[in-house]
Specification:
This is C-type cytochrome. The protein is mainly α. The protein is built from 10 helices and 6 strands. The radius of gyration is 39 Å and the shape is elongated. Bound molecules: heme C (HEC).
Length: 322
């Protein structure tokens, strides 16, 4: 029976051809099909099992036919098989790399000392080991020229590059994992889809007490500069999540709203700042100023009535436009 390629080449070759064809024909976006559709993994497993089954059947047919041969034909068949290129080539390569002398020739390399019956052979160093040694020398030479003579790049640059890549990966991740925000990580969302969602949450849950335009009713006015519990995205998020002072009517929304939803509605509230509602409620609380806002100029005026501190900031409010 003739089969030119051995099974350990044939099976992987067929398997990966089918794999590649599958990836080519199944449109799975930017993910490979076998990840996007876990079903395909079963398909591949089936293909693999089928290929193995076919090989096993071929083997047993070969075996049955072999038994029907005469003794002389059997011998010829075995001889031709052991002469196949991959066998001879593999065996020779293995012998070469090992570099050991056959047992019959050991007499030539035996050393003439004898430790309580333990004798030593003067084998050559195994060629695989020597080649490895040469490779390390070549590597060292290339390394020396590249990094110490041509100064390709150094550890600091490599570190910077990896940090940039990591930061980009984090940004990417944040886009898909907005729901992981908490009061420490919450940031003002500016995408219109987020603000739209925030508006919907506000009109559905909050407008009864804060009015649809944020002008205030049972709850305080959300459009002015005065805040009972502190302004800015973090304080607002905190208030929505944990609720207001006991007995005032502002409940903790964290049981009803997801973190992302709280961030969206908090960002939406920030957009209400400075608008003019129909029936604004009188200010409650105190003027809130962002302690982290960069201050460019501080002017202190002292007169008989008291001290006035004027601070000028250069940072435009992202919600008001420049
Ligand atoms: C049952 C009425 C009620 C509802 C509904 C309500 N609030 Fe309030 N809200 C209040 C009251 C009352 C306060 C004042 C709490 C205090 O003084 O401690 C308040 C305070 C706040 C504050 C802080 C205002 C400040 O001056 O510090 C924010 C922000 C806020 N609410 C957002 C929301 C959001 C967002 C929703 C919807 C998810 C909502 N509220 C739903 C009654 C309500």
């Amino acid at each position: 029976m003739r089969n030119s390629t051995p099974w350990w080449i044939r099976v992987p070759l067929l398997f990966f051809t089918i794999f590649a064809l599958m990836e080519y024909f199944i449109d799975s976006g930017d993910q490979p099909a076998f990840i996007a559709y876990p079903m395909t993994q079963y398909f591949l497993l089936l293909v693999l099992l089928l290929l193995i089954a076919i090989e096993l059947i071929l083997k047993s047919i070969e075996n049955v036919m072999f038994q029907t041969l005469s003794e002389e034909a059997k011998a010829r068949y075995l001889a031709s098989k052991s002469k196949r290129w991959e066998w001879t080539w593999g065996r020779e390569l293995y012998q070469k790399l090992l570099g050991s002398r056959p047992i019959e020739e050991e007499g030539e390399i035996i050393l003439d000392h004898d430790y309580d019956g333990i004798k030593e052979l003067d084998n050559r160093l195994p060629p695989w080991w020597i080649y490895l040694f040469y490779i390390t020398i070549a590597f060292g030479a290339v390394y020396l020229v590249r990094f110490h003579i041509l100064n390709d790049y150094d550890q600091a640059e490599e570190y910077q590059q990896e940090m940039v890549a990591a930061r980009m990966a984090i940004e990417e991740y944040k886009k898909t994992a907005k729901d992981l925000v908490d009061v420490n990580t919450v940031e003002l969302l500016t995408e219109s889809s987020d603000l739209k969602a925030g508006e919907a949450i506000f009109s559905g849950n909050c407008a009864v007490c804060h009015m649809i335009d944020g002008g205030g009713g049972i709850g305080p006015n959300l459009t002015d500069d005065y805040w009972v519990l502190g302004g800015g995205i973090r304080n607002i998020f905190q208030t929505i999540s944990e609720g207001g002072r006991a007995g005032k009517g502002m409940v903790a929304w964290k049981t009803n709203l997801k973190p992302l939803e709280m961030a969206q509605v908090a960002s939406y509230i920030m957009t209400l700042h400075g608008t003019t509602p129909a029936n604004p409620k009188a200010p409650e609380g105190e003027i809130w100023m962002d302690p982290n806002a960069p201050v460019d100029e501080v002017e202190v005026q002292v007169d008989s009535t008291g001290v006035e501190v004027l601070m000028e900031t250069d940072t435009p409010n992202p919600l008001e436009g420049e």
